[in-house]
Specification:
This protein is mostly helical. The protein has four helices and no strands. It has two domains: 89 residues; 42 residues, no CATH class. The longest helix has 40 residues.
Protein backbone atom coordinates (compact mmCIF):
# COMPACT_ATOMS: atom_id res chain seq x y z
CA UNK A 1 0.00 0.00 0.00
CA UNK A 2 1.36 3.44 -0.90
CA UNK A 3 1.75 6.15 1.67
CA UNK A 4 -0.19 9.41 1.46
CA UNK A 5 3.00 11.20 0.43
CA UNK A 6 3.69 8.72 -2.39
CA UNK A 7 0.07 8.90 -3.55
CA UNK A 8 0.17 12.71 -3.56
CA UNK A 9 3.42 12.67 -5.56
CA UNK A 10 1.80 10.35 -8.11
CA UNK A 11 -1.17 12.71 -8.40
CA UNK A 12 1.15 15.72 -8.77
CA UNK A 13 2.99 14.00 -11.61
CA UNK A 14 -0.29 13.16 -13.33
CA UNK A 15 -1.41 16.77 -13.02
CA UNK A 16 1.90 18.02 -14.45
CA UNK A 17 1.60 15.59 -17.38
CA UNK A 18 -1.96 16.73 -17.99
CA UNK A 19 -0.84 20.36 -17.87
CA UNK A 20 1.81 19.69 -20.52
CA UNK A 21 -0.70 17.82 -22.70
CA UNK A 22 -3.27 20.62 -22.43
CA UNK A 23 -0.69 23.28 -23.30
CA UNK A 24 0.40 21.24 -26.33
CA UNK A 25 -3.20 20.73 -27.49
CA UNK A 26 -3.96 24.42 -27.00
CA UNK A 27 -0.94 25.46 -29.05
CA UNK A 28 -1.96 23.04 -31.81
CA UNK A 29 -5.45 24.53 -31.82
CA UNK A 30 -4.09 28.06 -32.08
CA UNK A 31 -1.84 26.99 -34.97
CA UNK A 32 -4.83 25.40 -36.69
CA UNK A 33 -6.90 28.58 -36.39
CA UNK A 34 -4.00 30.69 -37.63
CA UNK A 35 -3.41 28.35 -40.58
CA UNK A 36 -7.11 28.39 -41.49
CA UNK A 37 -7.17 32.18 -41.36
CA UNK A 38 -4.04 32.40 -43.49
CA UNK A 39 -5.41 29.89 -46.00
CA UNK A 40 -8.58 31.93 -46.39
CA UNK A 41 -6.58 35.15 -46.68
CA UNK A 42 -4.40 33.58 -49.38
CA UNK A 43 -7.53 32.64 -51.31
CA UNK A 44 -8.68 36.25 -51.09
CA UNK A 45 -12.07 35.34 -49.70
CA UNK A 46 -13.55 33.47 -46.82
CA UNK A 47 -15.55 31.25 -49.16
CA UNK A 48 -17.08 31.55 -52.61
CA UNK A 49 -20.27 29.67 -51.76
CA UNK A 50 -22.63 30.37 -48.82
CA UNK A 51 -22.47 26.74 -47.69
CA UNK A 52 -18.67 26.89 -47.66
CA UNK A 53 -18.79 30.13 -45.68
CA UNK A 54 -21.15 28.54 -43.16
CA UNK A 55 -18.88 25.52 -42.90
CA UNK A 56 -15.83 27.74 -42.33
CA UNK A 57 -17.62 29.69 -39.57
CA UNK A 58 -18.87 26.50 -37.93
CA UNK A 59 -15.37 24.99 -37.93
CA UNK A 60 -13.85 28.17 -36.47
CA UNK A 61 -16.53 28.32 -33.75
CA UNK A 62 -15.99 24.66 -32.95
CA UNK A 63 -12.23 25.16 -32.69
CA UNK A 64 -12.72 28.18 -30.43
CA UNK A 65 -15.01 26.13 -28.19
CA UNK A 66 -12.37 23.40 -28.01
CA UNK A 67 -9.74 26.00 -27.09
CA UNK A 68 -11.98 27.44 -24.35
CA UNK A 69 -12.55 23.96 -22.94
CA UNK A 70 -8.81 23.29 -22.92
CA UNK A 71 -8.17 26.64 -21.21
CA UNK A 72 -10.77 25.90 -18.53
CA UNK A 73 -9.33 22.47 -17.79
CA UNK A 74 -5.79 23.88 -17.75
CA UNK A 75 -6.93 26.49 -15.24
CA UNK A 76 -8.37 23.76 -13.00
CA UNK A 77 -5.18 21.69 -13.28
CA UNK A 78 -3.06 24.72 -12.31
CA UNK A 79 -5.31 25.40 -9.32
CA UNK A 80 -4.94 21.76 -8.22
CA UNK A 81 -1.13 22.04 -8.47
CA UNK A 82 -1.35 25.21 -6.35
CA UNK A 83 -3.43 23.37 -3.75
CA UNK A 84 -0.79 20.63 -3.61
CA UNK A 85 1.97 23.20 -3.15
CA UNK A 86 -0.02 24.92 -0.39
CA UNK A 87 -0.97 21.71 1.39
CA UNK A 88 -4.70 22.11 0.65
CA UNK A 89 -5.07 19.39 -1.97
CA UNK A 90 -7.92 16.96 -1.43
CA UNK A 91 -9.94 19.34 0.72
CA UNK A 92 -13.29 20.51 -0.68
CA UNK A 93 -13.21 24.25 -1.41
CA UNK A 94 -16.85 24.56 -0.33
CA UNK A 95 -17.34 22.42 2.79
CA UNK A 96 -13.72 21.92 3.90
CA UNK A 97 -14.08 18.15 4.21
CA UNK A 98 -11.78 15.66 2.50
CA UNK A 99 -12.58 14.78 -1.10
CA UNK A 100 -12.93 11.05 -1.70
CA UNK A 101 -9.65 9.54 -2.92
CA UNK A 102 -11.49 7.65 -5.66
CA UNK A 103 -12.81 10.97 -6.98
CA UNK A 104 -9.34 12.52 -6.96
CA UNK A 105 -7.91 9.54 -8.80
CA UNK A 106 -10.62 9.85 -11.46
CA UNK A 107 -10.48 13.67 -11.66
CA UNK A 108 -7.19 14.80 -10.07
CA UNK A 109 -8.09 18.49 -10.45
CA UNK A 110 -11.40 18.10 -8.57
CA UNK A 111 -11.86 20.96 -6.12
CA UNK A 112 -15.12 19.79 -4.56
CA UNK A 113 -16.50 16.65 -3.00
CA UNK A 114 -19.19 14.94 -5.04
CA UNK A 115 -22.11 16.43 -3.07
CA UNK A 116 -20.80 20.00 -3.38
CA UNK A 117 -19.91 19.49 -7.06
CA UNK A 118 -23.48 18.38 -7.74
CA UNK A 119 -24.83 21.47 -5.91
CA UNK A 120 -22.37 23.68 -7.83
CA UNK A 121 -23.46 22.26 -11.20
CA UNK A 122 -27.17 22.61 -10.33
CA UNK A 123 -26.58 26.25 -9.41
CA UNK A 124 -24.76 26.87 -12.70
CA UNK A 125 -27.61 25.22 -14.59
CA UNK A 126 -30.17 27.32 -12.70
CA UNK A 127 -28.22 30.51 -13.51
CA UNK A 128 -27.91 29.50 -17.15
CA UNK A 129 -31.66 28.91 -17.46
CA UNK A 130 -32.54 32.22 -15.83
CA UNK A 131 -30.30 34.25 -18.14
Amino acid sequence: MTSDREWLETIRKRLEQRREELVRQHQQGLRFLAAEGQSQADEGTVASHPADAASDVTMAEYQQTVLRTLEEELHEVLLALDRIAEGRYGICVDCGRPIERERLEAVPWAARCIADQERFEKELERQYRSS
